[in-house]
Write a structure and sequence with these properties.
Mean pLDDT: 83
Radius of gyration: 20 Å
Helix content: 40-55%
Oligomer: single chain
Strand order of the largest sheet: 5-4-3-6-9
Low-confidence stretches: none
Structural class: alpha/beta
Length: 172
């Protein structure tokens, strides 16, 4: 509880997390960040929504193969390959999250949904947070040294600057 200056009323400062969005880039430190997300979710009894965003490289979108292969054949190949990748990523995230929650003995946390999406990572993470009405976003942040400062990674920076929700950043 807190009081506002000059106020006689008490302001309730309770913060509740029901839906937590964990965004992963599938990097080597992702498991550490997930454990942090699971710990937060466990403390609040929150549902974890996992999202991974695949950013299709422009070389795949606009490459020389389009000169020699019909766009319908090339598009079908891309779609089938992408569907296979999404299924495999989702399967691995399901296995990993289940075993991690069990090993961490996170009894109050559960994975509600795992989504593998395509698009621009920062924008897609924010859109997914809006879609599920997340109470907070958890993600790792690569650190890049500037001249005299520490600069966070571009996706984490974009999410942090544009989010209307609390963002928990964990260094990776």
């Amino acid at each position: 509880e807190a009081r506002l200056p000059g106020s006689t009323g008490v302001l309730n400062m309770a913060f509740k997390i029901n839906r937590l969005l964990y965004a992963t880039d599938l990097g080597p430190r992702g498991p550490d960040v997930f454990r942090c997300a699971a710990s937060i979710a466990d403390q609040y009894g929150a549902d974890i929504h996992i999202v991974h965003v695949i950013e299709e490289p422009s070389i795949i979108r606009n490459n020389i193969a389009e000169r020699y292969i019909s766009s319908s054949v090339l598009g079908g190949y891309r779609e089938s390959t992408l569907d296979q990748a999404i299924s495999e990523i989702k399967r691995r995230l399901e296995q990993f999250s289940r075993s991690t929650l069990e090993s961490e003995e996170a009894v109050n946390a559960r994975v509600a949904e795992i989504r593998v999406l395509t698009g621009r990572p920062g924008r897609t993470i924010l859109a997914e947070a809006d879609h599920i009405d997340a109470d907070c976003i958890v993600l790792g942040s690569r650190r890049y040294a500037g001249v005299n400062d520490m600069i966070i990674g571009s996706v984490a920076r974009k999410v942090t600057l544009k989010s209307r929700r609390p963002v928990f950043l964990f260094p990776v």
